[in-house]
Design brief:
Elements: H1 2-5, H2 14-46, H3 50-66, H4 68-78, H5 80-100, H6 104-118, H7 121-131, H8 138-166, H9 171-188, H10 203-225, H11 230-237, H12 242-263, H13 265-270, H14 273-290, H15 296-324, H16 330-359, H17 363-387
Helix pairs in contact: 2-3, 2-5, 2-7, 2-8, 2-9, 3-6, 4-5, 4-7, 4-16, 5-6, 5-9, 7-8, 7-16, 8-15, 10-15, 10-16, 10-17, 12-15, 14-15, 14-17
Length: about 400
């Protein structure tokens, strides 16, 4: 019981939260196993080209990202459980049709519908996590809610690969079982409902939402800015081996996950603005130092510091969301913000590649530092305005 007391969520709501986590986790597990393992390995047998498989993923992911505002509104109206059941059933229809009677037009159309059906689950899940958080632990609650979903993607990749290599005839059964569990878990969450708004957003609340938009775009823009160039930069310019790179990435990821529980207390207990701005400043400095092509020990140190900065930034950002998003509209607004985040994720790699071509290998890191600097200036101004009482 003492261990449960340390969690950022209220104990009485943990069963419902766990069911929602498993619903979303199994859905991410299925998508990873289906798109990144099953379809590439089975495309020839199904008569589907790899380019068509890639297009199906683009259609699915873009539809999900662009529908999150609508999906969040839907969760707010009919509940997380109903949307979970819908996403499971649509997924079963899409996968069974693709596997049993493959057709390019059916694949694209069904992936589009599946993307729409799941679009509200993540904003609904995060909104519920924020509502059941222990007062003073909201930032950590949302940060850990996000981190707890990530391993399911890797599990889908790993377990899907094991099945496709060793039990290929059973791979489709694995996918169907996972989606069946998604549907059943959705049924257990039918009682989870978001508070319905009693009135529309006023101008003051709308201005609070607009304050969040730049970071909503920039955080995933920064995370994806280096996707196209990081391997080439580290392997050919820093002269790292693959295992050295994996060690550095593992170090940073471990620090982020473990550090969020400790460093996440800063925004919850000491206020949002100093941890938010300090972490952005630290990230800017780290990007500038990586651009100087450091030695491997120095690079490891920068990865460690980057993990600490990111473990501070994420809870600070989440605490800012909880403070500024009106509770009654939170799920729908969260979904709309995720559309903005999706645009950041989509444009980040393209900008990173452009900066590499324009400014050389260090260009993307200089660009990352500039983005962090602009956010510091923006939120410094916002903090000054808040102190003057012009905003909430």
């Amino acid at each position: 019981m003492k261990a449960l007391d340390k969690l950022p969520w209220q104990k009485q709501d943990l069963p419902r939260f766990t069911a929602m986590l498993l619903t979303l986790g199994l859905l991410e597990f299925t998508r990873a196993a289906f798109f990144w393992v099953y379809l590439p390995f089975s495309s020839k047998e199904l008569g589907l080209s790899l380019s068509l498989v890639g297009l199906a993923w683009v259609v699915h992911s873009l539809t999900e990202a662009l529908s999150r505002g609508i999906g969040g509104f839907l969760v707010q109206r009919i509940g997380f459980g109903a949307v979970g059941v819908l996403s499971g059933l649509v997924g079963l229809l899409a996968l069974s049709g693709t596997i049993l009677n493959p057709n390019s037009w059916f694949l694209l159309a069904s992936m589009l519908l599946w993307g729409v059906s799941i679009s509200g689950l993540q904003p609904g899940y995060l909104s519920f996590s924020s509502r059941i958080a222990v007062p003073g632990r909201e930032g950590r609650a949302i940060a850990y809610s996000q981190f707890l979903v990530m391993p399911w993607i890797g599990l889908g990749w790993v377990l899907g690969t094991f099945f496709i290599r060793n039990l290929p005839e059973s791979t489709s059964l694995l996918l169907f079982v996972a989606l069946g569990l998604v549907t059943l878990l959705g049924l257990t969450s039918l009682g989870v409902r978001e508070p319905l708004p009693k009135q529309s957003l006023n101008i003051r609340q709308l201005m609070q939402v607009l304050i969040i938009v730049p970071t909503a775009f920039a955080q995933l823009f920064l995370q994806n800015l280096f996707n196209l160039v990081i391997l080439k930069f580290t392997l050919t310019h820093l002269k790292l081996t693959e295992w050295q790179l994996y060690l550095a990435m593992g170090l940073a990821a471990t620090v982020v996950f473990l550090g969020a529980g400790i460093l996440g207390r800063l925004p919850d207990r000491r206020g949002i603005w100093l941890p938010l701005i300090t972490s952005l400043g630290t990230l800017a400095a780290i990007f500038l130092l990586i651009a100087q092509k450091p030695s491997y020990p120095y690079f490891l140190l920068l990865c460690l510091l980057g993990g600490i900065a990111f473990a501070t930034f994420v809870p600070s950002w989440n605490a800012l969301l909880v403070r500024l998003l009106p509770t009654e509209h939170r799920t729908a607004i969260w979904g709309s913000l995720m559309v903005v985040e999706g645009l950041g994720a989509a444009t980040g790699p393209a900008v990173g590649g452009f900066l590499w071509d324009w400014l050389g290998p260090s260009g993307p890191f200089w660009g990352g530092a500039v983005v962090c600097g602009l956010l510091i200036v923006f939120y410094g101004f916002v903090y000054w305005r808040l102190r003057r009482g012009i905003a909430a």
